[in-house]
Amino acid sequence: MAEDISTPRINAAYLDAFQNQTVRIVGRVIQLRGERATIDAGGNITAILNRDSHLTPNNAVEIVGKVNPDLTVKVLVATDWGSNIDFKAVDAVVDATHRYKEIFYEGG
Question: Which among 69, 72, 23, 30 has a CA at the least distance from the CA of 49?
Answer without folding.
Answer: 72
